[in-house]
Amino acid sequence: MLIDTGLYRDDGEYILQYPGANEIDRINYLVVSHNDAGYIGGTAAVIDNDELGQ
């Protein structure tokens, strides 16, 4: 489970490094706590990343 995806300025770069560095190959649930720039930055990148889902 991934809760929130970081700052809008990161555009997912930072959040997408974490799974690979920690032997995580799948995210079963993605929770965005609220629509604020500090919490939703990497959401699109996580959803579009083919290596983390399906």
Low-confidence stretches: none
Look at the structure and give the mean pLDDT. Answer: 89
Beta-strand share of residues? 5-15%
The radius of gyration is: 10 Å
Tally of DSSP helical segments: 2
CA-to-CA gap between the ends?
Answer: 14 Å
Describe what this molecule looks like in 3D:
Helices cover 28% and strands 7% of the residues. The protein has 54 residues and is an alpha+beta fold. It has one domain. Strands 1-2 form a two-stranded parallel ribbon. The model has no long low-confidence stretch (mean pLDDT 89).
Topology:
Blueprint lengths: L1 E2 L9 H9 L8 E2 L11 H6 L6
Parallel strand pairs: 1-2
Structure summarized in a few sentences:
This protein has 54 residues and is of the alpha+beta class. Helices cover 28% and strands 7% of the residues.
Descriptive terms for the model:
54 residues, alpha+beta, two-stranded parallel sheet, 28% helix, globular
